[in-house]
């Protein structure tokens, strides 16, 4: 029942804790509120009155938020802060989220690469052909960030086609098609990265068998993850997108 | 109080609340949602543990977590009971109530 979900979400959404923990709070509180509501319906026979009575018994969402926040430890709060950077934010679309993730990956890995380069140069000196090194690192960073975006987006497409949430129709055929594309992107990245880095076609051909295996395994993993976690992710999205304005 | 009601067997949140109400004879005047922060704190402290309930075909809707006492929780409960007995004994002695 949507009214019950909204009442629970009013209490849980403002709590600063990681999303996994929030989902647990949501499910548990909703189960409890549903039990109260069913009890009140049996007692009163009127759905509207039962809803009001259930809300009254359950407590004020703002006070519950405060109590829930107090049950969250400092490490859990810090973890939520870090997660806030990388996790999906309602009502962000899958494309926008994976693009943000790709850019974040680029920024973080560029900083790491810069630090490693400075340390390497300081210890070993400039060395021979620094241009080639720079080309390899740049190719890897750009290619990997593009992969994060494309593979992430395709994962969400596979998940939605497998489970059929309210915003997308279930379609096993489309799930297979997106998995095929996923495999192509994975295989292509495996082949293109050495080519971009070294500029030598022989290097690319040398990794062709490994790229094919990767292209076959990667979509299988994506489908498995979508199958195991997809329903919980979709449920999370439904909660996070609820309009809780009074 | 929560540890005490879980001493009689594992239970999900609503059942914990029902047992508390029964044990309190209707004297408890707490909002039901406030049970969960208490459960989370007890779990964080290691006194209780919880797992998701295996949902049966006839039960639909939100999932429930089933809570049970840990050994640490049982020890804490026994300590709490002993402390309470001492408190009742001391205050009862002062007030002259029959022990």
Oligomeric grouping of the chains:
heterodimer
Helical content class of chain B:
40-55%
- Supply the helix-strand structural class of chain B: alpha+beta
Strand order of the largest sheet of chain B: 1-3-2
Can you tell me the residue ranges of chain A where pLDDT is under 50 for at least 5 consecutive residues? none
Biggest sheet details of chain B: 3 strands, antiparallel
Largest sheet of chain A: none
Largest interface: A-B, 26 and 20 residues
Count of DSSP strands of chain B = 3
Helix count from the secondary structure assignment of chain B? 4
Classify the beta-strand content of chain A into a percent band: under 5%
Overall mean pLDDT of chain B stands at 88
Strand content of chain B: 5-15%
What is the N-to-C order of secondary-structure elements of chain B (H for helix, E for strand)?
HEHHEEH
> H/E series of chain A, N to C?
HHHHHHHHHH
- The first-to-last residue Cα distance of chain B is 22 Å
Mean pLDDT over the residues of chain A: 91
Q: Rounded to an integer, what's the Rg of chain A over CA atoms?
A: 24 Å
- DSSP E strands of chain A, number: 0
């Amino acid at each position: 029942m949507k009214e019950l979900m909204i009442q629970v979400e009013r209490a849980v959404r403002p709590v600063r804790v990681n999303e996994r923990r929030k989902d647990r709070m949501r499910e548990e509180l909703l189960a409890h509120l549903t039990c109260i509501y069913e009890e009140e319906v049996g007692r009163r026979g009127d759905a509207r009155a039962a809803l009001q009575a259930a809300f009254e018994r359950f407590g004020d969402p703002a006070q519950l938020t405060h109590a829930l926040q107090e049950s969250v430890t400092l490490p859990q709060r810090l973890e939520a802060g870090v997660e806030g950077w990388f996790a999906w934010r309602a009502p962000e679309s899958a494309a926008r989220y994976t693009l943000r993730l790709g850019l974040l990956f680029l920024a973080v890995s560029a900083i790491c690469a810069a630090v490693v380069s400075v340390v390497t140069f300081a210890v070993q000196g400039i060395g021979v052909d620094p241009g080639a090194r720079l080309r390899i690192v740049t190719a890897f960073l750009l290619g990997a960030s593009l992969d994060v975006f494309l593979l992430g987006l395709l994962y969400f497409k596979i998940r939605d086609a497998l489970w059929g949430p309210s915003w997308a129709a279930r379609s096993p055929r489309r799930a297979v098609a997106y998995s095929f594309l996923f495999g192509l992107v994975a295989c292509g990245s495996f082949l293109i990265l050495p080519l971009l880095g070294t500029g030598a076609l022989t290097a690319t051909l040398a990794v062709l068998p490994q790229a094919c295996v990767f292209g076959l395994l990667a979509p299988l993993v994506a489908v498995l993850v979508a199958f195991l976690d997809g329903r919980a992710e979709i449920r999370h999205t439904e909660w996070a997108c609820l309009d809780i304005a009074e | 109080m929560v540890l005490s009601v879980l001493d009689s067997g594992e239970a999900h949140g609503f059942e914990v609340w029902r047992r508390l109400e029964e044990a309190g004879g209707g004297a408890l005047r707490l909002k039901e949602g406030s049970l969960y922060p208490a459960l989370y704190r007890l779990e964080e402290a290691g006194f209780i543990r919880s797992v998701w309930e295996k949902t049966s075909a006839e039960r639909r809707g939100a999932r429930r977590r089933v809570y049970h006492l840990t050994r640490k929780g049982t020890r804490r409960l026994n300590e709490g009971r002993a402390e309470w007995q001492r408190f009742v004994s001391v205050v009862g002695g002062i007030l002259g109530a029959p022990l």
